[in-house]
Amino acid sequence: MTRDDTGPAAAPTEAATFHDPLARGFPSTREGKVLFWLAVVFSIFQIVTALHLVALPSIVVRAFHVGFLLALSFPLIAASRDAGPVVKALAWAFAIAGFGVAVYQFVEYGPLIVRAGDPTSLDLVVGVVALVTLFAASWLIMGPALPIICGLFLAYCFFGQYLPSPLNHRGYDFEQVVDHMAFGTEGIYGIPTLVSSTYIFLFILFGSFLERAGMIKLFTDVSLGLVGHSQGGAAKVAVISSGLMGTISGSGVANVVTTGQFTIPLMKRFGYRPAFAGGVEATSSMGAQLMPPVMGAVAFIMAETLGVEYIEVVKAAIIPAILYFLSAFWMVHLEAGRRALYGLPRSELPSPLAALKAQWYLVLPLAALIFLLFSGYTPLYAGTIGLALTVLLILGGSVALRLPGKVIRLIFWIGLGLIAAALLKFGTYVIVAAVLALIALNLFSKSGRETLAICRDSLAEGARTALPVGIACAIVGIIVGTMTLTGMANTFGQFIVHVGESNLFLSLVLTMVTCLLLGMGIPTVPNYIITATIAGPALLQLGVPLLVSHMFVFYFGILADLTPPVALACFAAAPIAKENGLKISLEAVKIAAAGFVIPYMAVFTPALMLQDGGELATAIGFLPAVAYIIFKALLAIGLWGIAVVGFFRRKIGVFERVVAVAAAFLLVAALPMTDALGLALAGGFFAWQVVGARRDNAPAAIHE
Predict the structure, then answer these.
(1) Are 527 and 301 in contact (CB under 8 A)?
(2) Biggest distance spanned by C-alpha atoms of the chain
(3) CA dihedral 669, 672, 673, 675 (to 10 degrees)
(4) How far apart are CA 148 and CA 365, in angstroms?
(5) Is pLDDT at 9 greater than 70 in this prediction?
(6) Rounded to an integer, what distance in angstroms lies between the CA atom of residue 584 and that of residue 592?
(7) What crossing angle do the helices spanning 215-227 and 352-359 adopt, rounded to 10°?
(8) Is 428 helix (H, G, I), strand (E, B) or coil?
(9) pLDDT (tens digit, 9 = 90+) per residue, 364-385?
């Protein structure tokens, strides 16, 4: 991305503009300068409060977080649509009103606590302004789906008493509903906004700095070097690079329009159909939301909601995430074999070792982040340190280039490393002092000032990228607030529990369909919050372990972005692939077919998510159960892929595909009889393939 004096100004792609109305960035006008610096101030505010350099009550930090989001959203959207003076004036009026709510929360912090539950007329006016501006911003940024869903929940608070039993509630006054939603920590300033204003924003900034430092190129070069030469190498590059990028990205759709610019044309150039190429990118990018450490920022919300350690969420997510990507990898491998698509010569590919040697330092902040998260530090602390280390590397690299001699540069880097390590003993003030010193040193050279401009642009870009996620977190607070106020979740939960008492599988299917429907057209974070709030407790009552139940709904909420008719990720890939979004969606569902199986296997055998429980773990022990369920899952995934693509060592017929599907289905269940039948069918299927390949005198198509 290039930048003029007002901020990032690179022309966005058609996909990015269609799926992100803010993709055009900050305009090259006086208004654009104001918005650009407002975004920088927003990021600095978040960093300062995260480091506790300024002590503010949590509710005030959340209020200012939402206030900044609203202050930036309306004028940026108006500018991106080249609106006239009247619309721009209206946009600024909404922006000022939205930020004014935050100022009111700050000024009236003490009195609001005293009169909690008994709002004044002015409180109600401010509360209504908060709700109206939030709904308007959500509609403009993400389209109608999420605000309509949230609006229905809000309407249920006001009018639910008129519905027939058991859907009705006792009824709530207008003042009570507005007070509940717009003040305190049960509505728009609830846990989703808390997580957005702390963990999520910092991780988005972290990703923004890494992207500008060259992380995308590093991921792509390593992926090309590792698998670009193999059968179907172009598609495998897409799977790996999108998966790697997704580990630091907070949005699957953003991942599609970022890495897809490279991977989709590459796949098309090497013979993959446009729909399949778009489907691979959409499947990989959305699957990256399942991959630790960030998990589309849901890992932090899940840990906060369930009151468990972050590491427990990662432990539950890691094996299914790996299986998901192995499934996608397997599907593109089979498709390549079916169409005889081979990779590039090794001589034309970058060396992964050379790429790492040239930019190895970019891996350090990510490695430090993972180390801190797995060492028991809070996500807020780990994200802050990861961001700080990235800034140190960028600023320090600029200074080191101007130092004479390798020895002096080596001493400089050792000293900077010791300063970074000192934060564990002396706290974050050490890092702050080091960053300020490096900023001062970079002011005295042209290259240093260019580096500072990159950091400044990263702050603004991070704030802009955070707008959709932050707005979504705030507005889904209305759904959570409705649940806490009315107990609505119990009605739906009781229905699922009633079905599940006689048939758990049917109850899981019902939950899956609910998640797919509710998740259509909604970003990752609100997607999880909605589905977990409504369906998660019901699964828990049916005996599904807590984390497994939440991962189940999270999984299918993610897959909703691949499922027709909405399929946001697929329609984001459509302009790049130059193919119909619905066709891409159908291909994506095929590629992710195994992903629809993994959550069911985890419910029947929780050992797949490294959770205690289940008959298998009781019978043979926990570790043997983990090993067995992984083997069974890999076998089921393999059979699914063969059945969907219609190829293994050779093209296979309808009967063979039916046998493969039957074996895969039997392996999903956790009954000894179904396992035995599934393994027997699988053994017979593979034996038949070997015999058939020899009979047809066909060379093996699966090779590297």
Answers:
(1) no
(2) 84
(3) 60
(4) 40
(5) no
(6) 12
(7) 160
(8) coil
(9) 887 877 777 777 777 777 777 7
